[in-house]
Amino acid sequence: MEDFARFCCPNTRCSASWRSSDTSRKDVVSAPPHAWWESTAIPSSAWPAWPAITPTTLMTSTWLFPPRTREVQFDEKWAFVGKKQKNCDPNNPDDDQCGDYWDFVAFDPEHRLVLAVVPGARSGENAQAVVEEVKERVGEAPPALMTSDELPAYTTAIETTFGAPVPAPVQRGPGRPRVTPELSLPKGLCYATVHKERENGRVVALEQKQVFGTPEDLEKALGDSAVSGAVNTSFVERNHGTDRGRNARKVRKTYQFSKDWVVHEAMTYFTMYSYNFCWAVRTLRVRKEDGSWQERTPAMSAGLADHVWTLEEWLRFPAFQST
After folding, report:
1. What is the pLDDT of residues 34-74, one digit of tens each?
2. pTM here?
3. Beta-bridge partner residues of 184
């Protein structure tokens, strides 16, 4: 139940960060939930009772958790709070709460599912955080294929998150033993990047680079994929457009931009995670036996739900907070 609540409800992810100082929002990720299982989970006072509109079929025993994720695309989406970074004055204390604000997004392209989002600075720490959240979401078995842009932090994050230490060889002769152990990635795991060449603001060429895995493993992962015939980040980039349309604070040229870090972060979780359960994606619909179409959300496609949730149902879903 706690796993699903964290995946479904945004307030369990950022409640701890709301109590922290606002001055650290640009430099660090929200308080990570790495130790959430070490304390007793209790229902939040905001959710006094199970909503009557929630079907009884959605019990823990019927949820197919974790999601059926075989492929993950990573990317960052730019936004800003207060003013753009280039207009911030480093000597002005008021500008500490202003500047660029990025969403590190992990996206399942086959099911159009937002696996994880980490708002904050475009830093290696946040890249590490989003990869670690992917591992928590999908369980022990890593996705067969992971793709991203050329941000170097993803390479380090994937290796340290999914890699297992290689036993050090027996020390023979003088010399210091190896301090930092080598890491070995699971067999069959592939990670590749996409390099885009632009002219006059338009992409004119794409270059694919395989970072981890063998060419045979990559070819198999692409062959098994239901949507990707080549290494790409197209699906997560398309989701960026969907999220900008759902959250006016992130439109590139707007007067509706956020003025507060905490509110911006809260709206990020609200729009991106409610999308999973409440937004019926046209390309996910399936034709029923009578010829009509059945609308499906990313959560339904990934096996996390059996119907399109209303926003009220999603908001009233019982959340668990650590004491």
Report:
1. 333 333 344 444 444 434 443 333 333 334 568 889 999 99
2. 0.78
3. 164
Cα(269)–Cα(89) distance, integer angstroms: 28
What values do phi and psi take at 151, rounded to 5? -60, 115
Q: How many CA atoms lie within 13 A of 193 on its CB side?
A: 13
Residue 316 has φ and ψ, to the nearest 5°, of -90, 5
Q: Provide the sign of the torsion angle of the four alpha carbons 5, 137, 302, 311, taken in this order.
A: positive
Contact (Cβ atoms closer than 8 angstroms) between residue 283 and residue 289: no
Distance CA 151, CA 280 (A): 31
Burial class (CB in 10 A: 0-12, 13-18, 19+), 65: middle
pLDDT of residue 30: 41
Give yes or no for a contact between 203 and 197, defined as CB atoms under 8 angstroms apart.
Answer: yes
Return the domain boundaries, the chain: 2-139+233-322
Q: Strand 113-120 and strand 99-108: pairing? A: antiparallel
Q: What is the pLDDT of residues 72-106, one digit of tens each?
A: 999 999 998 888 888 888 888 877 778 889 999 99
* Backbone φ, ψ for residue 247 (5° rounding): -130, 100
The tokens of 251 are what? 């439109």
The sign of the torsion formed by the CA atoms of 103, 104, 108, 114 equals negative
> What are the tokens at 48?
């006094």
